[in-house]
Every structure is written in C-alpha cells, then in structure tokens.
Amino acid sequence: MKLSYNWLGEYIDTAGISPADYAARMTDTGSKVEGYALLGEGIQNVVVGRVAAMERHPNADKLWLCKLDVGTGELLNIVTGADNVTVGTLVPVAVAPATLPGGVEIKAGKLRGEVSEGMLCSVSELELPDGYVCDDGTGILLLEEGEVGQDIRDLLCLSDTAVEFEITSNRPDCLGMVGLARESAASFERELKLPDTGTFAAENGEIDSLLSVEIHAPQLCPRYAARVVKNVKIAPSPMWLKSRLRTAGVRPINNIVDITNYVMLEFGQPMHAFDYDRIGGGKIIVREAAEGEVFSPIVGEEDITLTAGMTVIADATKPVALAGVMGGANSEITEATTTIVFESANFSGPATRSTSRKLSMRSESSGRFEKGLDPETVGAALNRAVQLILELGAGTPVSGIIDVYPGKETSRTMPFDPKTVNALLGTELSAEYMSGVLSSLGFGVSGSEITIPSWRGDVTMSADIAEEVARIYGYNNIPSTMFRSPAKTGLLTDEQAFRRLIQDTMVRAGAYEVKTMPFVSPKSHERAGLKTDPDHFMTLLNPLGEDTSVMRRSLLPSLLECLEKNHHANGENVPLFELANVYLPQGEDELPTEKMQLVFGFCGGDFYKLKGICETLLAAAGVTGAEFVRSEDCCPALHPGRNAYINILGNGQWGEIGSIGEIHPSVAKNYDISERIYVGTISFDSLFRVRRLNKKYAPLPKYPAMTRDFSLLCDTSIESAAVERIMRRVGGELVETVRLFDVYIGKGVPEGKKSMAFSVAMRAADRTLTDEEAGEVTKAILAAASAELGASLRG
C-alpha cells in the first residue's frame, strides 16, 4: 500500500513531522513502512516544453535537432536521440543549467558539432515511481497536458512523498487512506478529520424504476449496494486526482474509472462501475456461476470458462462481472456511456481468493477482498463516489439507493479490564490513558465495556486489547523485568531423544543427513519402482504443481534423487540418510496416518557395508540378536537375490522392522548413476518399541571360556542365521558368542552343498566348564542341526 503524504495531510495535521520521523513512528506502532520516496527530489529547472520543429542531425543519422518552446519567447536548440517525439508534443525539458535526481547536472554544449541547450527527459531520468505516469518506457516522457514553461514538479504534483507500507493480512482496514490516517492520528496524537460522506441507508427514488438487485448467494455476498448516475461525461480526471492515483501506483484511465480507484485507495473498499445500458433487464443478480458458464473479462481477449462455487454478478441473462475480481467486457465503461451503475459490495474473502487463483487473475480488488473487508464500509464508499461525481461535474446521480444487506452483524463487545492489560504488559498505565488510546483507534469505551469497531475483525480477546495499548504506548517504553517464576530446564521427550540418537549414530557411521520436501510427484515413486495408483497417495487439493501434487508414501524416491545429484555434483559416493515422515492415506475424508521412517544408502561399496551401517545403528539402539533374512518378495525396488528383511525379537515374537538391499537393475537404470546402489529402510516406530537404552552392568567374567569350532556341511539354501539360531537355543546360557568365519563351495564339497565354519565360545558364570560339559553342548548342537537342517559335520 502506497500512501501520499500530501493526501494524508487532509486527514491529520502533519506539521512538524518529517517523512523519516513518520516512517519510524508508524513502524514502531505496528504499521511497517517498507520505505519512502521524495518525489521530485533533486529536480531543478525542468519545465514543460512544446516541440516546435525537428530535423535530422547533419552529422549523425540517429540524432534529431529539435527546437523547443519553453515559454521564454525564444526557441531552444536541443539534440536528442529519442524516436517517440513529434512536432507539437509536450515533453519535460531540462533547460541548462538544470539538475536531475541523483545530482546529475545538465549543461549547454555541442553534440556532433550542433549546439544543445538542454535535454529532453524520460521517466527514468526523472526517477518517477512505476505507474506514476502513462508511459511505455521506450523514450522521452510524453505529457498529456500542461502549460509551456510550467515547472514539471507543479504539473506532476511531485512535491510529495510516497510512503510504502507492508500491510499484514490481519489488518485489511489499513489498505486505504482512511485506515492509515486513523493509525497515524493515534500514533502522533493528532486529531483525525475524516471525509464527511453523510449517512447511508436504502431509500426509494427514481432508481427503483431503473434497477433491482437480488442476492441469491448470501454466503458469498453479505452486502450489495448500488446507485445510478445519469448524464455521464467521460473525460480525463483533473491533475490532483491523477497525481494521487499515480503516487499510489494506479494508472489513471478516465474520470469514472478513476473515481472507483480513488475511493478504493481512500476507504480500502473496491468499487466497480457498469454501463447501465448494457445491463440486461435492468437487473443485477449476485449468484454462483453455473458449471461451464462462459465469461468475457475486461482484460484479455479470450473468454473464461467458470466453475461452480465462483461468484458472478449477472444481469437477467448473462454474467457481467466476476465478483471481487474483474469486470466484464460486456458491461464496461466506454466513450459512448451515458448512464452508469456504481457497485459497492462485500464479497467472501476465501471465495474471492479461490476464484482469482483458479483463473490466475489477480487484481487490486481481489487482493483486498480476499483479506476480509468490513461490510460497513460499503455505504460510505458509495456515497463518496457520488460526491466525487458531483465535484468533477461528471454526471447527475438519480434519487434513491439500493442496499441489500442479508449478512448484517451486531456490534461486538468485550470487557475492559485495565488490571488485566497491565498484568499482561508489565506496566502501570492508567485506565484513562488506555481509554484514550483505544478511542483514538476507533474503539468505543464505556465504563467496563469496549465496543469493537466493525473494521477490526482481528480483535477477539483481551490480549488483543493489550496489544493495541502496547503498540501505541511504545514497546520500547515497556520496562524490562525478570521472569517472575523460576526458569525450568527444557527436556526432550523419549521419542525426540531417540531421533537425535539415530541422527548422531548415522553421522558417526559416515553418513550425511538430507532434508527433502514431503510433497512429491507420483512419477518419482514410479521411477523408484513403487506403486503409483491414485488411491495409493494422499493428493493435495491445491498443489503448487504436478511435481508436488501428492504426499510421499516412502522416503526412498527422494533419497535416490539425492544420491543421483550428489554423484554428479562431486563424484564422491558418500552415504546419505533421512529421518522424516511418510503419509499413508486412510480414507477419502480422513487425514493420512503419519509414520516416521529412516532411509539410508550409497553408491558403490557392497552389501556388507550397508549391513554394517545397519548393525551399528541397532547396537546404538541396544538391540541385539537381529537377523537379516533374505527374501524373494521384498520391496519391488530391491534386487530379489540381494536383499534382506531385518527381524528383531521383541516381546517373545520375531517382527520385521525394515529391509536392506541393492536397488533392482530395472530401477537403477532410471537414475544416472554408474555404480550399484545400496539402500536400507527402517521403521522408526518399530525400532523405538524394541530399543534397549538402559545399560546394565555386567562384571568381568571370573572363569575362562571354552571355544569349539564347527564345520558343517549343508544345502546351499540354508542361511547362517538359521544355524546360529539353533546353536544359541540349544546351548542356552552357556553359549556366549557365535561367529561365522568361513563359507566354502567348491572342490571337495558335493554339488548343491556348502561348508559353513562357526566358532562358538562357551562360558559358565559360576564355574569353569569341563570338557565333558562342552562336549555335551557340542553333541546337542550337531544333533539339532542334523534334525532341523539336515546339516552334518564335515569330515
């Protein structure tokens, strides 16, 4: 929102307040000033000139010799390279000696042997704000009006300061001059002088025979008011009105359109003007658009197809405007317009935002409506527009006002408790001071009750009242105090601490953590060999694009993309990991279930490096006895012969907590990586349930261990984990460790068989084992291995 400092002076006395002081104080009281520009600063001796004659420069094909009338009685000779100047046009002329913004000095001299007594100026050379004048930026600024010799600062009303505010979404009342003037008056303790627009109420008159208004969708339009103006004279607006629009960044068009824009800038209430003769049946209907209904906007040449839920302003037969967004080409003001309908209405913010986003049609009006405007401003804005019609002599308002207001709300009140405000702020302000601050902001204070103004929808609780007092009083004036209660040490929950343990362990294992977006494309899962059925995902209703249209079900696709990028970025195949949520859909109208997942992987290396990282993590979690079981029907992204489930014994039952393996060749070819890819996935919830972080002291053994080596001959399909399980079960507490130290297939071993060699350490806690006891355990292990696995001792 850009504010004209001169315009502000009509509402409050700005004497003694410099633009710098104004910007600082307004920012301190909550209206953040992004910056300000002193219009016309540094411009000296630049006047309006008329081009009297032109001819080509004799020594340069691209230059012109111009003779300019600047009101001195003599024509000036000026050399220019601009091609948009013609004889008779009015242009800004820097008459030497002159000064332009930035300290640029213009002196008389010669260009290619011809005398030049000044310079013709462009918008950029005068450093005018964007949109300040009607200019396409291709050359010299061509003036629409002005008297020869007139100071350019007076013509363009450049003796002003443009202040740019950043208005937060909770303060749409500050999207107009009135709202900012109210804030300014309260901030500087100055009297507020608002324009007198008179009272507003529906009244009968000539309008009843010309126009009727119906609201068929009150949830989309709480209020709609209209007035009719006859004998309209379409003409340019006066310079004072144009300059105020330009300072605010709005381009002047004609007096009628400029009035609607002026009222929008003054009250923050968007307005629209229809050509009455193009309103079919003399009827305005506010309704929802029909599915597939066609609308022709003012801007653009193509028709727009509307969808149900959008709000349209229609006449008896067709849409004539897209409510809160844009007017229609079939009802716009033209040079032939003689009768107009002024519209001032309030439209649903969410509906306006949804429509403008779907159609990619952002406008000054939609930007205001979508923040939620005050319906009570509708009447004052409409009256103001009629006042300006009379002031500019642009038409004759007919008698009568139409005001359809089905969504009128009662005023809101809340208790006024100065003690509560002081307790919240840590101040000792008087009730009188607080009452004065609130009154200056438009609140009604009566005894112990506050009436909240209609434009302050953001004030809903006592803390909001305290904030209003605090920001005007000055946050810097509130004394610093110590905490009144003792500070408490913040602690992590068990899950938070375990997450950090996992992250720290993975980093110690040599992996780098990555963070990726939870919004992905279904194609990323397809690329990783995972399911891509639409029902398989939680689809976003309003995605940024197809690449971020669903919530991910697995972290694997994101990790593979990171491995691919990292592989090409530096060529180092360092392990990567991510600990984040995946989202599993539950039903059409239900939120997804969020499950935390750990995924890790690398390029190059081998399966045993991957297994080693996994075993390091399990050891840090206090998990022992994990088994890695090969599977032929593991994750479709993994190689069927080079993968394993991770099984953990918990609560007396074995359960799967994840998987590791090599990426399937058919999936790997989808990624531009020249080496094999190894990945692992572990369920955080499953690992958290079986963690054993409490360390139990175990004294050093008092008695020696006995070691027995087993070389077993078995089928090649038998896994070492199955043999180890039998050894631990049969040996019971006496078996301390089991270590596989050799696997052999080859000469001396029958076809379809393999030899596995284990070293088993046995120890008793209360005595030294005898050879007989160790021998009994050995016999029992061999007997069980033979009976259950068909294994025999290799000779």
Helix/strand class: alpha+beta
The overall average pLDDT, rounded, is: 92
What is the alpha-carbon Rg in Å? 40 Å
Please state roughly what percent of the residues sit in beta strands, choosing from under 5%, 5-15%, 15-25%, 25-35%, 35-45% or over 45%: 25-35%
Share of helical residues: 25-40%
Spatial gap, N to C terminus: 92 Å
Largest pleated sheet: 7 strands, mixed
Uncertain segments are none
What is the tally of helical segments? Answer: 21
Enumerate the strands of the largest sheet in spatial order, edge to edge or round the barrel: 27-31-32-36-35-34-33
Report the count of strand segments.
Answer: 40
Shape: elongated
- Quaternary form: single chain
Report what the structure shows.
By secondary structure, the protein is α+β, with helices and mostly antiparallel strands. It has 21 helices and 40 strands. The protein has a 7-stranded mixed β-sheet, sandwiched between helices. Strands 3, 4, 5, 6, 7 and 10 form a 6-stranded antiparallel β-sheet that branches. A 5-stranded mixed β-sheet has the order 12-15-18-19-20. A hairpin with a 2-residue loop joins strand 8 and strand 9 (114-116). The mean pLDDT is 92.
What's the SSE blueprint?
Layout: E1 2-4, H1 5-8, H2 19-28, E2 33-38, E3 44-57, E4 60-69, E5 75-80, E6 90-100, E7 104-106, E8 109-111, E9 114-116, E10 118-120, H3 123-126, H4 152-155, E11 161-165, H5 177-188, E12 212-215, E13 223-230, H6 239-247, H7 255-267, E14 271-275, E15 283-288, E16 294-295, E17 304-305, E18 311-314, E19 319-322, E20 326-327, E21 340-346, H8 349-359, H9 364-369, H10 377-392, E22 396-397, E23 402-404, E24 412-415, H11 418-425, H12 431-440, E25 444-446, E26 449-452, H13 462-473, H14 494-508, E27 512-513, E28 519-520, H15 522-527, E29 538-539, E30 550-551, H16 556-570, E31 576-584, E32 593-603, H17 607-620, E33 627-630, E34 638-650, E35 653-663, H18 665-668, E36 677-683, H19 684-689, E37 706-715, H20 720-731, E38 735-744, E39 753-762, H21 771-789, E40 792-793
Parallel strand pairs: 12-15, 27-31
Antiparallel strand pairs: 1-11, 2-11, 3-4, 3-6, 4-5, 6-7, 6-10, 8-9, 13-21, 13-22, 13-23, 14-21, 15-18, 16-17, 18-19, 19-20, 24-26, 25-26, 28-30, 29-30, 31-32, 32-36, 33-34, 34-35, 35-36, 37-39, 37-40, 38-39
